[in-house]
């Protein structure tokens, strides 16, 4: 399985119908974007360790270069964000924290905005 297919399996697959209000994975109104969702999620849950603004000794061992400050970062790391933050075995953030609803929205944003942007590049 390619990583892309694995992530789609993890996210439950897209049921299509992007225009439907409450049907389909991409039904959120307004559509989830970096500005109205992703940035806030990363600020709250990830950049305490994954920010280019942190010194190496402030990153709590988060790998140097795995930064989640910008939309471009999100596109670069989209598949790994999903792999580490969604599903039964989610390991990011390491201490937990995001509610089930927050994780559901993350999966929608990844599938409907981030991964398509990555594929378009
Ligand atoms: C308390 C510090 C901390 C926070 C907060 C944190 N991480 Fe991490 N992250 C780490 C550490 C340490 C590693 C390296 C060890 C590992 O991979 O488990 C890492 C590694 C990663 C990697 C690279 C490894 C891979 O699997 O590709 C990704 C991607 C990642 N984290 C995503 C996230 C996301 C998304 C969030 C927010 C939901 C987050 N992290 C929050 C500490 C943190």
Number of helices: 4
β-strand amount: under 5%
Q: Largest sheet, if any?
A: none
Query: What ligand species are in this complex?
Result: heme C
Mean pLDDT across the residues is 87
Number of domains: 1
Number of strands: 0
Q: How would you classify the helix and strand content by structural class? A: mainly alpha
Cα separation of the termini = 21 Å
Gyration radius (Cα, Å) is: 14 Å
Q: Write down the overall geometry.
A: globular
Q: Spell the H/E element sequence.
A: HHHH
Q: Can you tell me the residue ranges where pLDDT is under 50 for at least 5 consecutive residues? A: 12-23
What does this structure look like?
The protein has one domain (31-120). It is built from four helices and no strands. It has helices spanning 3-11, 34-45, 71-85, 100-120. Residues 12-23 have low confidence and may be disordered. Bound molecules: heme C.
What's the arrangement of secondary structure elements?
Elements: H1 3-11, H2 34-45, H3 71-85, H4 100-120
Helix pairs in contact: 2-4, 3-4
Short description:
The protein is mostly helical and 121 residues long. It contains 4 helices and no strands. α2 packs across α4 and α3 packs across α4.
Label this structure with key terms.
binds heme C; about 45% helix; globular; about 120 residues; mainly alpha
